[in-house]
Write a structure and sequence with these properties.
Blueprint lengths: L4 E4 L3 H5 L1 E2 L4 E4 L8 E7 L4 E6 L8 E8 L5 E7 L6 E6 L6 E10 L6 E3 L4 E5 L12 E4 L4 E4 L10 E9 L7 E6 L3 E4 L8 E9 L11 E3 L4 E8 L9 E2 L10 E2 L8 E6 L2 E6 L3 E3 L4 E2 L29 E2 L4 E8 L5 E13 L5 E9 L12
Antiparallel strand pairs: 1-3, 2-7, 4-5, 5-8, 6-7, 6-9, 9-10, 9-11, 12-13, 13-16, 14-15, 14-17, 17-18, 19-29, 20-21, 20-22, 22-23, 23-26, 24-27, 25-27, 27-28, 28-29
Length: about 375
């Protein structure tokens, strides 16, 4: 039998279905065991109440009462007839922002109508429903079989900021697909594939689960990316002086300087080094100073690269080449479609035998007509 227990009950409950504040009732033996460990918390526009079953629980149901803090009466807001694993829960969505609510739960004997309140009431402060700011400046760094998505970190300045959430935008305009959450303003999508464009949006989420609207869409198309390639000048090593941008890793990009599939070859004379376009390649006549071929995930703030290949202005005339410059290329692929590539020269020099050579990094866009190479 349940021992005598002092709890706060309100006489008006029996007559009107609500509690008042001015009556203390002594629970006699035979009343149901009270709910235990009543707790409440707020998340995403709802208040969740939790309690546990007493060891003396005998199948009784529960009633949930609530009121705004400062109001004189509690009102019945729900009946709870089932629990799971000894744990009970009720979610109140009939709330408004910036208001505190007080709740109490009672157990009810369905046969006698006897009712016992939990020994405590809980108060839950509902915050503003405002979400953090929408992330801005979303951009995609297209890597090799990977897209690195990054954006501005200004939403972090809000006091209740929690994390960012990244979504994949489907090509058919359907529902967004969540990719994951990030504590920092960046996300590495390693499921992206070379030659396939992926589009993304980002939202910010606060500690209460409020989520901002989605950002503007940003897209990226991964492409093969290689470092430290070496070719010789045509005069010194003609069989190793040509280069072609390969469409697969199985193709050797270094080729003969007279090969009909070359995109360019290296030539050196007393006036300098030159990139000479091949049968299917055209060069943009001016290089751009860069510190890296691409400024990727771990790049420092002083990193400089060349973002987009120009769409026009290419030439089949030899282009003077210098170290630390990036050069853009347009090559004709299958069915006459144009593809874009880039090289960044890291060294012009000679080997131990005096043969002139060039070492460079390169990237190639597999998707026809897409000029996106690397992020600025």
């Amino acid at each position: 039998m349940l021992n005598r227990l002092l709890v706060v009950l309100w006489m008006a409950l029996l007559a009107t279905g609500c509690h008042t504040d001015d009556t203390v009732f002594v629970v006699e033996d035979g009343y149901p065991a009270p709910p235990m460990g009543l707790e409440g918390s707020y998340f995403h526009r709802a208040v969740a109440l939790y309690w546990t079953l007493s060891p003396q629980w005998n199948g009784e149901s529960f009633r949930v009462f609530g009121r705004r803090v400062g109001d004189s009466s509690f009102f019945l807001i729900a009946d709870v007839t089932s629990c799971s694993g000894g744990e009970c829960e009720y979610t109140d969505t009939n709330i408004v922002p910036s208001v505190s609510y007080e709740y109490i739960v009672s157990s009810v004997d369905p046969d006698t109508g006897a009712e016992t309140d939990a020994d405590v009431a809980v108060t839950v402060a509902v915050p503003s429903f405002d979400a953090p700011p929408v992330p801005v400046g979303v951009e995609v760094v297209a890597l090799d079989n990977t897209n690195y998505v990054r954006w501005g970190d200004s939403p972090r300045s809000t006091s209740d900021f929690s994390h960012y959430r990244l979504y994949l935008v489907p090509d058919d305009g359907g529902a967004l697909s969540p990719l994951g959450d990030s504590d920092s303003p960046g996300f590495l999508d390693e499921l992206a594939s070379n030659g396939v464009t992926s589009s993304y949006v980002v939202s910010s989420v606060d500690v209460y689960g409020h989520e901002s609207a989605e950002s503007a869409t940003a897209s990226g198309t991964p492409r093969p990316d290689f470092r430290g390639e070496l070719i010789y000048s045509f005069a010194d090593e003609p069989g190793l002086s040509g280069f072609r941008f390969p469409e697969s890793e199985e193709i050797d990009p270094v080729t003969d300087g007279m090969s009909p599939v070359r995109d360019f070859r290296l030539q050196a004379d007393q006036f300098g080094w030159w990139l000479v376009p091949g049968p299917s390649g055209e060069a943009f006549p001016e290089g751009v100073f860069t510190t890296q071929l691409k400024c990727g995930v771990a790049a420092d703030s002083e990193c400089e690269d060349w973002t987009w290949a120009p769409l026009t202005g290419y030439t089949s005339v030899a282009v003077a080449v210098e170290p630390e410059l990036t050069y853009m290329w347009r090559v004709e692929g299958d069915a006459g479609a144009f593809h874009y590539g880039s090289i960044r020269v890291t060294l012009l020099g000679s080997d131990q035998n005096g043969a002139s050579l060039m070492i460079f990094d390169w990237s190639f866009q597999l998707q026809a007509g897409n000029p996106q190479m690397i992020r600025r």
